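We close this part of the discussion by returning to an individual protein. In the encoding step, the backbone of a single protein was reduced to a row of integers, each denoting a local shape. The sequence in question and its structure tokens are set out directly beneath this paragraph.
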Amino acid sequence: MSSHYEVALFGEFFSRDLKAILNRITLHSESAHPMHAREVVFEPFDAQQQRDTGADPVMLRARKDLTEPDSEWVLYSHLKPESVRAHPEATVRPWATCQVIGDALSFAATLGYVRRSQIYKKGYLFRRGPLVIQMFQQEQVDAKTQQPIPAHADTLWEVEVKTASPTRNTQETPLRTSVNAVVEVQLLMKGLLDLRRQDI
């Protein structure tokens, strides 16, 4: 069985460059939508023990689209990125994802995970062929209400250019096609936004 992968590039910029970057990405995308999402990060209950033995615990993430009132939670997990020697141009990492109907946060706890952190991301979502481009600022969470606090005007903008759905490395759909697609966006943004691979 072949694994599923995510292919991605990452970048960040200051608010003063928002208009120029927004214009260029919009010009080279098929669609653009507002984005507001909540993401909760979980780690295995024995994560510290795993770290003590030199293992990297597999994190589980739950994501919910807040722009759609009836949207379901999506659970996903990334494994360690493949080596820079194998894929110098982009981050390529095994990716598992599933949609959860009902209480995904309790479901994650049942799987043996504990909540580590949560963030809200607000900005724009673009589609370009097989890619999704997320451009957002992170919002802090109010400790009392657990609701997002709007980002400060000076908060850095983050950009993630990645495959919209898990990709298999097969003869029909080689990973090289996805790598080329994200590198194409990197070239389109050159001189305005530095997109690079990230080992996370």
Remarks:
- The two ends are 25 Å apart (CA to CA).
